[in-house]
């Protein structure tokens, strides 16, 4: 079993990591795949940096930096984990990662603050709930 946990470095995404670790401590036999998705470079970046390899390297380093705390939590808990930094539109990239890596579950933090369902959950969590072909658990941070 492998649980995909999208991580953007926020308190909400780290709460999702803690929840996934708790599931494993409770007896679920699984590893974690911590994933960060870097959106494609915008026009400004493309005009300023003409080297596609440099842009890819910078995106990878930024993603790895955002995954560092989550990976440290896994190491401290003694839980097997992998990290993946992808580039692209977040929802599609996460769904592709889940499928390509054979994930059996997604645990995602809720970022939303509005009145509608999508705003209460956050756009990524809402889209994953509706579009993923596997179970999705949304973790809210206590207010």
**Which CATH class?**
Alpha Beta
Outline: globular
Cα radius of gyration in angstroms:
15 Å
Q: For the record, what is the CATH homologous superfamily label?
A: HUPs
What fraction of residues sit in β-strands? 15-25%
Number of domains: 1
State the secondary-structure class.
Answer: alpha/beta
Layout: helices, strands, pairs:
Blueprint: E1 2-6, H1 11-25, E2 31-38, H2 43-48, H3 52-77, E3 81-87, H4 90-100, E4 105-109, H5 117-121, H6 123-131, E5 136-139
Parallel strand pairs: 1-2, 1-4, 2-3, 4-5
Helix pairs in contact: 1-3, 4-6
Architecture overview:
By secondary structure, this protein is an alpha/beta fold. The chain has one domain: Rossmann fold, CATH 3.40.50. About 50% of the residues lie in helices and about 20% in strands. The chain contains 6 helices and 5 strands, in the order E-H-E-H-H-E-H-E-H-H-E. Strand 1 (about 1-5), helix 1 and strand 2 form a beta-alpha-beta unit. Helix 1 packs across helix 3 and helix 4 (about 90-100) crosses helix 6. The model is unreliable at about 115-120 (pLDDT under 50).
Summary, kept brief:
With 143 residues, the chain is α/β, with parallel strands linked by helices. Helix content is 50%, strand content 20%. The protein is built from 6 helices and 5 strands.
Write a concise keyword list for the protein shown above:
UspA, Rossmann fold, Rossmann-like_a/b/a_fold, 20% strand, alpha/beta, 143 residues
């Amino acid at each position: 079993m492998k649980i995909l946990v999208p991580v953007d470095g926020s308190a909400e995404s780290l709460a999702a990591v803690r929840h996934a670790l708790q599931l494993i401590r409770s007896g679920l036999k699984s590893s974690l795949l911590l994933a960060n998705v870097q959106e494609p470079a915008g026009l400004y970046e493309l005009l300023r940096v003409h080297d596609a390899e440099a842009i890819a390297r910078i995106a990878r380093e930024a993603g790895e930096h955002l995954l560092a705390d989550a990976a440290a939590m896994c190491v401290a808990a003694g839980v097997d984990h992998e990290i993946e930094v992808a580039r692209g539109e977040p929802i599609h990239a996460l769904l592709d990662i889940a499928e390509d890596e054979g994930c059996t579950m997604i645990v995602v933090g809720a970022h939303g603050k509005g009145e509608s369902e999508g705003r209460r959950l956050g756009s990524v969590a809402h889209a994953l709930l509706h579009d993923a072909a596997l179970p999705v658990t949304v973790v809210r941070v206590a207010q």
